[in-house]
Amino acid sequence: MAPPLVSVPMKKNKKPSLVLTLSAAGLLIGAGSIGYWLLSQRQPLSGELVGANIIPGDALFAVSLTTDPQQWQKLRQFGTKETQAELDKNLVQLRDRFLTNNGYDFQKDVAPWVGDDVTIAFLAPDTVSKPAPKPVATTDEDTANDQQSMVMVLPVKDPEIAKNILARPKTLKQGKWIDRIYQGIAIKQSEGQAGENFSAALLDGRFLVITDSPKATERAIDAYKNKTSLATTGGFAENFPKIANYQPFAQFYVNVPTAAKIAAASPNRPIPAQVLAQLQNNQGLAGTMTLEPEGIRFKGVSWLNPNSQRVLAVENKAGKMQSRVPAETLMMLSGGNLQRLWGDYVLTSQGNPLSPIAPEQIRGGIKSLTNLDLDKDLLSWMKGEFSLSVIPTTPKQGSPGDFRAGLVFMVEGSNRQSAEASIKQLDDVMKNQYQFQVQSAKVAGQPVINWVSPYGTLTATHGWLDGDVAFLVVGAPITDKIVPQPNNTLASTLPFQQTVPTEPNPTNGQFFLDVERTVKNFPLPTLIPNQETLLDATRSIGMTSAVSDSRSNRYDIFIALKKVTNMTTLPSPERSKSSSAIPSTISP
């Protein structure tokens, strides 16, 4: 499985919100084009990000969205009444803000000229690439360059109509429109507005480019003419086609080294120099989202910098653990090589303040608790497929304190003799240091070892499956569900087969979570806003990953969703316009 990419904090933008940016841009091309971005279009087979040949190569993030009304209607069918209501609220707000409230009708004003989808990219501040810090005294231009810029690319079906729109833009409420030429390209931009100055240019009659600053327009034109765009960025052209899909709902790209530089410049959580250097080995993360009858599918790819000395080991040997756990398993996470996964984690996480847990802390914790060396005593023989699963059990009547599920760890060992020696040391620690009873027993005729706490409760069981697969059960006594190998396995269930992607194949890791049964029976920690509402709309989640080649990893994710019965229609513009005032901000 691939090493985790670092989540980076963004510098606080002093400019007005993105909603204001889009609203002002709508004065130029007709606010309807933005509403069209979210409510109407058609999307062909896509193997590239629309506008990738225009977006500057150092762009931080780019996203392309279909606006096919049928696809958005399809999205509205998923979830529950609560999630549909939340989605509908946002769609109505966007439609009314960018269409109805500005006097536009999509079919009449937008559909005749606009293309099949819209791409929005955010450019990194110029100061990210500057070697020296800025002086204390700054000019207005310095301040503008230190802020993120937005580039919007709209494909054009009818150049003549697009030219007419540029020639006769909407009247500004403040300031005026001016014309200028840059590299032979005519630019229409606003002047005298409070806040940003917006610019628009028509490139070769095929793409209408709108930005929130004149400098960003020039950068887009330079990228287009000089072939320094996102399309020419290292690894982009080779890897983006790997996630091509018919009629994608959305596509995105993240520039990892640029994101890392911005994080390193943050005064709150700076990234150490050695970690920043390591992150430069990673180049990009891209994905495609499509809507299917029973849910949403994501196809993702991450790749290394072509100049990086690091290479990936093409080793995809997972795919058997789902046949070792029973059908009632709630969750299973598997991987192809635990030792290698740990090595990748150490490589990208050591000294990184953004890592969930520092490798040094994990090593130190195991050493202090068990007196075992994680690398030498344990991981040295854990070179095969591994899995972590949650298997429920039925609590005994009248025993509310009993565990309701067991946590099961399995790993295919490469050296049983070394493994048994390490496990024997672990048994001795549990017996001598923690006063557990270490008892030999049998389950279905197979020898196992039970750890029983001083209070007499069965705490854990370990043993071997098929000679070379070690297992450890913690919590509920569910060993009889995996010994012997169950007849009805997780792999044979419809939820697993319908949720966990069959590609890429072969695989180096899979994940399955039965959300419905898990939420119903076990409390979950809150990790994201509106988590309860989102989980209530989800049936199950599945993922399959693989090392595509020595430079890239592939991921397929499927989220099976519930469907709304008796789906309502969106309120008409007349009804929504007479309703309560539209808020000034729109949640994603």
Summarize this structure as a short list of keywords or feature phrases:
29% helix; elongated; disordered N terminus; 588 residues; alpha+beta
Written overview of the protein:
The protein has 588 residues and is of the alpha+beta class. 29% of the residues lie in helices and 26% in strands. The chain has a 20-stranded antiparallel β-sheet, with helices on both faces. Helix 2 runs antiparallel to helix 4. It is elongated and about 85 Å long. The two termini are 30 Å apart. 40% of the residues are buried. The N terminus and C terminus are likely disordered.
Write down how many β-strands occur, each being a DSSP E stretch of 2 or more residues: 20
What distance separates the N and C termini? Answer: 30 Å
Average pLDDT confidence is 79
Largest sheet: 20 strands, antiparallel
Low-confidence stretches: 1-45, 131-145, 576-588
Rg = 28 Å
The coarse overall form would be elongated
- The percent of residues in helical segments reads 25-40%
Class by alpha and beta content: alpha+beta
The total count of helices amounts to 19
Our estimate of the beta-strand percent is 25-35%
Secondary-structure map:
Layout: H1 18-29, H2 32-39, E1 59-66, H3 69-77, H4 81-98, H5 106-110, E2 117-123, H6 140-145, E3 149-155, H7 159-167, E4 176-182, E5 185-191, E6 199-203, E7 207-211, H8 214-226, H9 236-239, E8 250-255, H10 256-265, H11 273-279, E9 282-292, E10 295-304, E11 331-335, H12 338-349, H13 359-370, H14 374-378, E12 386-392, E13 405-412, H15 416-432, E14 437-443, E15 446-452, E16 458-465, E17 469-475, H16 494-499, E18 509-514, H17 515-521, H18 531-536, E19 538-549, E20 552-561, H19 573-577
